[in-house]
Amino acid sequence: MNISNTIQYIGVNDHEIDLFEGQYVVPNGMAYNSYAVMDNKIAIMDTVDVHFADVWLGNIKNVLGERLPDYLIVQHMEPDHSGSVFRFMEAFPEAKVVASAKAFVMMKNFFGTDFTDRQIVVGENDTLSLGDRTLTFITAPMVHWPEVIVTYDSKDKVLFSADGFGKFGALDIEEDWVCEARRYYIGIVGKYGLSVQALLKKAAALDIRIICPLHGPVLTENLGYYIDLYNTWSSYAAEEDGVMIAYTSVYGNTKKAVEQLAEMLRKNGCPKVVVNDLARCDMAEAVEDAFRYSKLVLATTTYNSGIFPFMHTFIDHLTERNYSNRTVAFIENGSWLPSAARVMKGMLEKSKNLTYTNANVTIMSALNAESSAQLTALADELSRQTPAEADAVEQAANKKYVCKVCGYVYEGSELPSDFVCPICKRGAEDFEEMK
Length: 435
Fold this sequence. Notes:
This protein is an alpha/beta fold. It folds into 3 domains: 228 residues, Metallo-beta-lactamase, Chain A, CATH 3.60.15; 149 residues, Flavodoxin domain (Rossmann fold, 3-Layer(aba) Sandwich); 36 residues, Rubrerythrin, domain 2, CATH 2.20.28.10. 41% of the residues are buried.
């Protein structure tokens, strides 16, 4: 795969994996991306999982022919990307390895050596000349490990973004980018929003035409769309106005209440209502939905003086990823001493800027006239648009996008992906949103 005339894709697809990082279901496998940057000298960008080392080394030789690589750039030390470092250094004994100081410490831990006589340590804004092009290194600590760097090629205007802008799924499978990218980001990087925001600010100063991540497809069009999504995710803002209902139910009574609430919300005109049975759904998908939508309803039974285990796990996933800036409601069930709402709210104390509904629902075993009335009140409250949401809708309808080449301004809720500037004829990728 040609990224440009002088950058080649040399990564691999993994269809043997069932759980990424031992917990995320990946029915369409994973891609471990690596790139060969060819100039007077040649740099290989990252390695692959060690189980695919032979295939990867073969890819390098097929692309380079008789030439040999001069550098291996290691941006991130997770084994799915660094697993073949030792094999590379054995195969190409004249090559040097380029990485951050913290990465070399990790190499010593992983491989028993930090390649002292062959290492080049780089930090913020350090450069490496390959001939006609210069690579610039940008530190990205805690996106999502402390040793991470990303690399900018000013000649082809390429950002090698490490785990940023990655997604689940192998490259030989066609699927929607945003769903699996969102699940990947929130599950793996989501805790580190502040670090991602810091990296986005650095990236904003660069002229980027191509993004080459370590997982998922190379991004070459509509880069503003992807960057805007990352800005939303990393600032913990809701991506869409909607209600996500997460529930557990032992004998079906809580489930019945949830189904009734969902139907009420739809009849009230809620733009999106999503329901997740936490005992049966993919937990990572449920967490993704909670971060995607503006409102969350937690519905569960009182269980062993606490809450049902799946709900406990779900809330833990939210709080450890800094869940914030949402409206939250509770439905609790208990046959003699319902306390689930109090427990759930206590678990959310770590979260910031949560707004709790005035209406909540307490079910004593099964719905009755009183709890049904509470359910109606909750549906009505969740269906009302808050002032903040109204402002967001108004702002979205009055966005402005400016052409970075000639300064033409487009006004509208979204810039069409096929838009062409009427003045300079540049495409949508050359526009940026005016703040």
